[in-house]
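go over this record:
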Amino acid sequence: MSEVRRAIRRHIESNPGVHFNELARNLGIATGQAQYHLRRLRRAGGLDTAKVRDRTHYFPEGYDPWEQRTIALLRRETVRGIIVAALEEPEPSAADLATDLDVARSTVSWHVSTLVDAGVAEKCYDEHGRSHIRLTRPDETRRLLDEVSPSAPDRLVDRFTRLVDDALLE
């Protein structure tokens, strides 16, 4: 196995759920080189992928599909904030999440839809028709939360979205 391929494997093992662009950027390798070695690693076995919201994420073997989707989403700062809020206060409302995270309601709605589609959360409604979020597997989600954190580029994208949200609200 080449040194580049070993470096890619080690990076994926220590950063489960890393997405393609982040992997290439962190290792300082060209896109074509990353594609070539990832393809070889996948053929050899021991490497899983999950596509979440148009991004391919890479995992060492051992994560089930729900864990893969959850980890991929936890790498996104705003989604992570929603999940943390739902772990701290069961069934937070969408309005409270928007206020607490300082993002537009539409941003919360989009991310909650992503969590619902991934099976990580479900929407529920109170007696006044207000939407709330409930995690489907809170204990497992809490465990996975400790395994990953968003990358710097993911945080920048989320912060840019917040900036645009703020500008549109003014």
Summary: The chain is about 60% helix and 15% strand. Residues 1-63 form a domain with the Arc Repressor Mutant, subunit A fold (CATH 1.10.10.10). The chain has a mean pLDDT of 87. The CA atoms of residues 96 and 132 lie 9 Å apart.
